[in-house]
Every structure is written in C-alpha cells, then in structure tokens.
Amino acid sequence: MANVGELTWRDEGVTENGVLERGFTVQGARDVITGIMWSPPTIPAGSPLVLIGHGGGAHKRAPTVLPTGQGFVLEHGITAVAIDAPGHGERGGVQGRTPEYYALWKDARVMTANATADWKLVLDALLGLGWFDPARVGWSGMSMGSLIGIPHVAAEPRFKVAALGLCGTRGDTPDRGNAGEVLAEAAKKITIPVIYLIQWDDERFPRESALALYDLIASPDKRLHAHPGAHGEMPLEGRMAGRWFVAQHLKA
Amino acid sequence: MANVGELTWRDEGVTENGVLERGFTVQGARDVITGIMWSPPTIPAGSPLVLIGHGGGAHKRAPTVLPTGQGFVLEHGITAVAIDAPGHGERGGVQGRTPEYYALWKDARVMTANATADWKLVLDALLGLGWFDPARVGWSGMSMGSLIGIPHVAAEPRFKVAALGLCGTRGDTPDRGNAGEVLAEAAKKITIPVIYLIQWDDERFPRESALALYDLIASPDKRLHAHPGAHGEMPLEGRMAGRWFVAQHLKA
User: Fold this and answer.
1) Do B211 and A215 touch (CB under 8 A)?
2) For A208, which residue in chain B has the nearest alpha carbon?
3) ipTM value of the model?
4) Does B223 sit within 8 Å of A227, measured CB to CB?
5) Contact list, B227 vs chain A (CB under 8 Å)
6) Are A240 and B236 in contact (CB under 8 A)?
7) Nearest CB to A237: which of B220, B223, B227?
8) Does A224 contact B223 at a Cβ distance shorter than 8 Å?
9) Residue A7: beta bridge partners?
C-alpha cells in the first residue's frame, strides 16, 4: 500500500485531439482516490491548474465532466483534474440518486469534510509534481460539484477563482439532511472571484434557494448567469462562460 | 417644417478613435426627434444596426449611453443610434428623476406608445438610407431603456435580438403608476433572443421584481447576468456581455 498522499500514474495516457488524458491514484486516508488529468501534450512549468468536481451519482469521467476537462485544455490550454467523489465511480459505484447516494449525504458535514480532505491530498500531490503554479489554482464544480465545492473552496486558501452553481440552500429532497446549512455557512466564507451558473427551471434546486445561495457568497467579485431549462440542460454558452471566467483569472 | 418621418443630418460628423459620430433629426408626429449615430467611418451596404434606449432623466449622449454607442463600433464594427426619449434631452430637458420625469410616466401606456411611435419613424428613416440590412436590427436599453424597450421590442417585428435590464415589474416609486403592468404584458410578447442584465443590489428596482420581469419574457433563448452593486454600478463586464451578445446575433 502507498503512503497517504502518494500519487501513482496508472497509465502513459492517451492523446486525442490535442488533449492528453492520464489516469492516476492518490492514496487517501480512507481509500484510494481515483483521478484523471487532462492536459496539453506538454505542460510548461508554472502552469495553472483547475480542479473539477463532478455531479451527484456521476464520476470523474461522466459525460458532464469530460467536456469540462477537455474544454479547459482545448479552449484555454489549461490542465484540469477530476477525481471520483467519496462513494462514487471507482470508489463505491454510486450511480444516480440512489438510496446509497442519499446515505452518503445523510450528514453533509461528514461528506464534505471527507471530500475536502481528499482534494487537499490530491492538490498537495499535484503541486508536488512541480508542474503547476500554486498561485494559479481554480475550482469548477456544478451541482454536487458545488455541494462539495462550496465547503471545499471555503476551506482551501490556494484557490484563486471558482465556477459554482446548479445548487442551492435547499436540495431536491428532504433526505438531503443538513446540506443547506453546511452550504450556507461555507458560502459566507468564500471571498475569491466566482461565477455562479444556474438553470432557471432547475427541478432539483428551487430557483429561490439557488438565488439565496448566490446571495450568501461573500465574494465582492461575483456574477450569476441564468439560462432557461432543467437541471441537466445547461447550454454550452453557460459552460463556456464558466471555463472562460476561471481561465481568465488563472492566466493573469 | 419637415414631413413626418423625414431624416435630416445636422452635421458632417466628427471622427474620433475610429468612431464617426453624427447628429440627425427625424420629424416626429408630436415634435422633432433628436438623435445621434455612431458608426465606422464608412458603413458597408447591408450593415447591421443597433438602436439604443437611454436611461430615465438622461439623454441620447449621456455618460451611460456614449460608451455603449462607441462600444458597438469599436468592439464589433456595428453602427448604433440613440435618440432623446419623449421629454428628455433636447425634447424637453427632463434631467434626473424630477417631478417632470414622473409626470411623463404617469401613464406608462402613453409614454411607451409615444416612444415606440418615435422609434418606428426613426427606424423607417434609417432603413430608408439603404445602408442597413433590415433583417439585422437589434435593441439595447437598460433601466428606462427597458421601460421603453420592452414594449418597443414587443411591438417591433424587425428586431432580431435585444439587450434589456436594470428594470423590473415594480419600479422605484409608487408614482411609477402602471409601468409594471405595461411591462409585464409586453414581456410576455417578446420571443427573440434576449440578454437581461441586472444589478444584484439595485436600489431602484427590487431584485424580486427584476427577476419576475425576466421570468415573464417569453423568449426560449434568454439569459440573465447579475452583478453585485447598485443600479448605476453595472461593471464593464456586464455592458460588454450585452454588446457582445447583440453583436453575435447581428453578425450571423
């Protein structure tokens, strides 16, 4: 068994359309954290880095994550990394909003503390490679990528910018437990530049609760973009605006 | 006296930083409509055209209008036109939110019908020049530029795209009369692509009323961008997003 925090590459990687995709693991405190890195074929020293949080019941290479990872490389030449959230993907196999999913979220403090601890180990390991500029790290996560991302961004001083959204102080089910409370507390601690993307007709997070969460984010430099449609229908325009905003702040 | 609808150039124009600014008048049904055109030094035949509505108590060349007119030219090579609204600028001199201003808005149906009739004459006259593509005309107007703009866009089938915002179903004063009702009715008739820009802490139009008005816009292709700050504090980011969105739809 690897030491906690140790990064191991799983493969040489595959380059497709100019995006190099490599699998890696980082030994976590509870289990092995499984991740993917998307990057240009060569990563110049001192490059920026974006960490991506996937949605609930999804995984590090879900159809909602892959274009985000590839998009940061293709649109902005920026390396991006996603990991499986606790209990998700190769770390438990939760698929969709199953009873197992809601069990994970029974206590949002435990779930987000675990996820934040995982990400801290992963970021430490990634910065340890010597490839990235520790002053230019960003976060991008919608839906559960914000349920985890908001407490994570609040707790991680190395983030310079974040794309958040598809989220709210009130979740899509009473089983969500104390997530709203945890999110509200964390949002008040976020002060970095934020773009917050919502779907106007989100059936999972009521509009008022999504707006309330945006309102709580303490960043003086924040903006909200809303597009019509359901939770899963964010248009390319919104996704691209999120990537563009994060990239601009990391390029500076 | 000129015939109703007749356009007269007031000057040869001045070119500064690549923007040609010319004054013109169009004979209106009630009085002379005074306007400004900002354009590239030469306007290629079949060019797009943007009409700009100014804010309440302002005028066609107010500090909130000038960068919009110049911006369409400088950022997108697109010609833009502003006129003084009824009672404003050279047409009565209302300055700020004075009793005269609220008197104009006592019956929003009259005010918006007058403004829409003015703009119809102006657009007819501008298209009569043979310089512009009648299929590529857009609207940009915030605050009173939306109080007028929303009924105007609802009534004018030649618009292909609109930038609206800093507005709401409930105005900043009980004196506003029936504006909310007029706006709500009109918003339901708008079906073209819209970008709607609001200020999160708008002291003139309560946030909920601004969101309610956005919600009423019938366009399937709409987006809302919100930035922190008061009514008069829209950042350059928001203004540029508005121009970019309008320009993209007129360039296609």
Assistant:
1) no
2) B208
3) 0.91
4) yes
5) 222-223
6) no
7) B223
8) no
9) A26
Contact assignment for A223 to B227 by CB distance below 8 Å = yes
Determine, for residues A211 and B211 on separate chains, whether the beta-carbon distance falls below 8 Å: yes
Shortest alpha-carbon distance between residue A40 and chain B (Å): 29
Per-residue pLDDT of chain A (252 residues; tens, 9 = 90+): 789 999 999 999 999 999 999 999 999 999 999 999 999 999 999 999 999 999 999 999 999 999 999 999 999 999 999 999 999 999 998 988 888 998 999 999 999 999 999 999 999 999 999 999 999 999 999 999 999 999 999 999 999 999 999 999 987 655 568 999 999 999 999 999 999 999 999 999 999 999 999 999 999 999 999 999 999 999 999 999 999 999 999 996
Task: Please state, in angstroms and rounded to a whole number, the distance separating the CA atoms of residues A95 and A89.
Answer: 8
Q: Which residues of B touch A227 (CB under 8 A)?
A: 222-223
**Residue A228 is nearest to which of B220, B225, B228, comparing CB atoms?**
B220
Structure-block tokens of residue B155: 């009534």
Is residue B242 exposed (0-12), middle (13-18) or buried (19+ Cβ within 10 Å)?
A: buried
Name chain A contacts of B215, Cβ cutoff 8 Å. Answer: 200
Chain B nearest-CA distance from A215, in A, is 8
A225/B224 Cβ within 8 A:
yes
The contacts of residue A174 (CB under 8 Å, 6+ apart) are: none
Is the CB of residue B110 less than 8 Å from the CB of residue B147? Answer: no
Q: Which of A223, A237, A239, A244 to mutate to test the interface with B (most CBs of B within 10 A)?
A: A223
CB A58 within 8 A of CB A75: no
Q: Does A200 touch chain B (CB under 8 A)?
A: yes
Q: Which amino acid is at A57?
A: G
Distances (CA, A) of A184 to A24, A222, A251, B119: 33, 16, 30, 47
- Pairwise CA distance, residues A153 & A151, whole Å: 6
Residue A53 CA, chain-centre distance (Å), reads: 2
If you write DSSP's letter for every residue of chain A in order, what string do you get? -PPTT-EEE-S--EEETTEEEEEEEEE-SSSEEEEEEEE-SS--TTEEEEEEEPPTT--TT-TTTHHHHHHHHHHH--EEEEEPPTTBGGGT-B-SS-HHHHHHTSSHHHHHHHHHHHHHHHHHHHHHTT-EEEEEEEEEEETHHHHTHHHHHHH-TTEEEEEEES--SS-SSGGGTTHHHHHHHHHTT--S-EEEEEETT-SSS-HHHHHHHHHH---SSEEEEEESS-GGG--HHHHHHHHHHHHHHHH-
Q: Which residues of B touch A240 (CB under 8 A)?
A: none
Domains of chain B: 7-251 (3.40.50.1820)
Q: How many residues does chain A have?
A: 252
Q: Indicate yes or no: pTM above 0.80.
A: yes
CA-derived radius of gyration, chain B? 17
